[in-house]
Structures are given as C-alpha cells and as structure tokens.
Write a structure and sequence with these properties.
The protein has eight helices and ten strands. By secondary structure, it is of the alpha/beta class. The model has no long low-confidence stretch (mean pLDDT 95).
Length: 282
Amino acid sequence: MDINRIPANELGKHSGIKLERCETEHDLYWKVAIEVLETIAENNKKGEPTVMVVPYGPIGPYSRLVYLINKYNVSLKNCVFINMDEYMENEKECICVDSPLSFKGGMNRIFYNRIKDELNVLPENRLFPDPNNTNQVMEIIEKYGKLDMAWGGIGINGHFAFNEPPESDEICSKEDFLNRPTRVLKVSRETITVNSYVNCGGDLDAIPKYCITVGMKEMFMAKKVRMCMPRAWNAGALRKVLHGKITPKVPCSLFQNHPDAKLFAADVALNPPIPEIKIYNE
C-alpha cells in the first residue's frame, strides 16, 4: 500500500515505533511534559539521577513542565539535561547566547529562569554539545551508565536534532549513520527553509548555515526515545518515519529498530499528505 494513503486510524499498526495520537498540538505538549516529569519523579523516588537529551524545540512542553515542576515541587537537582543541538556562527564557534536564535539563550528564557531556585537543574548540569569537546556527551552517558530519554521534534526531512539526511550523492549505510556521534555539520536546505519560515519571516539568509548536534550514536543509547510531530507540515515525514523504508534518508525511520520509541502526533499531522493545489479566497 502507498503509505500516503494509509487511513489515519491505521497509522502506527505494525510499526516498530509506538504512535501516541493527540487531538491537538496542546494535548501533545501536555502528554510529553507529563512523561518527562514522570521519568524524573521515578528516578528521584529511587534516588537515581536522570540523564536526558532534550531539545529547544518544540518549546510547548517547557511551559507545561515549568508549571508541573513548580506546582508539585519536583526536584531537578539530580538531573543532567543535555541539549541536543545549537546553531553555529561558523565551523568552530557557536552563535552568541544573546542571539535571538540561540537555543542556549532560549532555554534560559523559557525554562531555567522560570523554575524555583530550590528545584532547578544545577548550572553545571545544563549542557550543550561543545565543538571543542565533541566526546563530552558520550563521556557523560558513560559516567552515569545510562541515558534515560532523548526527546524532541522531527524535522520536515525526518531528522532528529540536526542529524540531517545524507546528501543525494553521499553513500551512507544505516549502520554508518547510526554510528555518527556528536559533530559539527551544515544545516540542510530543507531545514533552513522551514526554520526561516517558522522563526524569521522566511528570511533564508537569517538562519545560520552550520550547527552542532548530538549524534544518532548517542540518541540510540537512550532507554526511551520520544518524538513530536504537532504540525500539519509533519504529515509527509510522519508516514515515512512510521511505515517507510528504514533508511538514513529519513533519519527517524531508524528508530523503528529501537526497543522503546514513541511518536506523539497531533491529529493534523495524521492527515494523508495527498498532493493538491490549495485554493484560497482572494
């Protein structure tokens, strides 16, 4: 069957990735926030640290997490949060934290600065991949002997963090792609286009051309992988991720072979992506 014509109520069946259907984008953010919080609370109860790879976007779960953490006094003191990526000024330097596009600056604004001091993640445990020490993320995972969760949004080309698909003329097997660690790379044309639309009014020149990302090698070590697709433009990639060929050309399709991968999707992302020229009233 053409995967683009699978009825919405059949999506997720026989896939290695569990599908969590969410009526709206806002429902999705609450469900993700609750699962993140439950993971932290369970580890706190056992007296264990929580090690997570986290995104800057989607940002919706963070406002809900702030509310839940502060309301129920859930301590993050024993958490290690590793942000999965950041834009770079060039191949050697991350963009300034004061830039409106900085993920590091954004995390301070939407999350860390809004948590009660007595509950907050310790400053030394608020980490970002470092272009001068790309082994750091793996060293942290090895230090704690685990990675509890990796969660974040999926890009229009099926990427997770900035793990962009190989270029069309690049030879790369599934095994090779899954072995790619934290690294600096160019942002793909597709990602620049979507991010310019979402973040800066379609100004393609405003989006940095380089980034650093936690690799699929580290992501696949997570006990739980949780992916988010809250938007209508996610529909095309969603079906490839769940039911398409397992290939580096759609990076998140590789999670079909992960032991505990789940995709949270809003109803708008479940619609069949059938080609149709849209007609708008003028």
